[in-house]
Amino acid sequence: MTESVPELAESLGAAGYLADEQLATALFLAVRMAQPILLEGEPGVGKTEAAKALSRALDTPLIRLQCYEGLSLADALYEWNYPRQLLGIRLAEARGEQLSEVDLFSEDYLLARPLLAAIEHPGPRPAVLLIDEVDRADDEFEAFLLELLAEATVTIPELGTRRAVLPPIAVLTSNRTRELHDALKRRCLYQWIAHPGTERVAAIIRLRVPGIADWLADRVAVSVGRFRALELYKPPGVAEAINWAAALHVLGAESLDESALRHTMSAVLKYEEDRTAVEAAGLARVVGDG
Ligand SMILES: Nc1ncnc2c1ncn2[C@@H]1O[C@H](COP(=O)(O)OP(=O)(O)OP(=O)(O)O)[C@@H](O)[C@H]1O
Ligand SMILES: [Mg+2]
């Protein structure tokens, strides 16, 4: 599966993801060098899906941590199961026994959150740990993450230090709402995912919309390129291209003309301002009809 870059690219393709050579190489290195990889790029360009597809290609679980402002270590790492501890105390009391602190802070009452789960994953292959939208988490969290990625250990004061048997393959994604710290970047391989060219968009559509006619996949890909040249507020990305193609396919569109676009515009443009801009540019022109 990971003997060579082309082999990994092929496995990713079988898992429903078309990676160009650069991205396939970066993911290959992340796996083979056991180094975290940071994926950046516009929304909808396939950052999250890259990690998901990698886990499918490697036939290993995906463990996902979605980052957000205020993400706490209790959500990311582990938490004590407080209701269960209380219940344990009550039940022991009913039996006329007493639970010691050591009993209460034991494995039985530990809730592993994604980071701990990834460290403790028993194998046979390392899990893919997706740390999604890391730019949304706070600085302190980033610092903690850095340590965790470097050491692949987690210390639980009551239980001691856990060292990963199989350090996870860490895939971090960022939409660049803020710059990440140099220290974190230094630790990671880096790959910018750009919006793919027309041919690749068409290939992705064919892969993701089974049964779609080749001409329709091609026309959608070309039109998406024209939309993007209009400098819209939210230019359609890969996600929108797939969505639009799927809508046209479901409606049984026999050509991509002004009327077909009018009926399916909601799948490709998500802002009123962008609709107006496209109307002004001329619907027929955008779909290359006349
Ligand atoms: N190279 C690709 N091959 C196949 N499908 C793709 C590819 N790139 C993107 N997609 C599809 O496009 C959609 C959007 O991708 P994804 O959610 O991974 O984007 P993202 O970069 O994580 O976006 P966001 O920043 O909004 O989270 C998904 O349905 C994904 O499967
Ligand atoms: Mg994403």
From TrEMBL:
Transmembrane segments: none
Domain of life (superkingdom): Bacteria
Name of the protein this chain belongs to: MoxR family ATPase
Span of domain AAA+ ATPase: 33-198
CDD domains from the UniProt entry: AAA (cd00009)
Single GO MF annotation: ATP hydrolysis activity
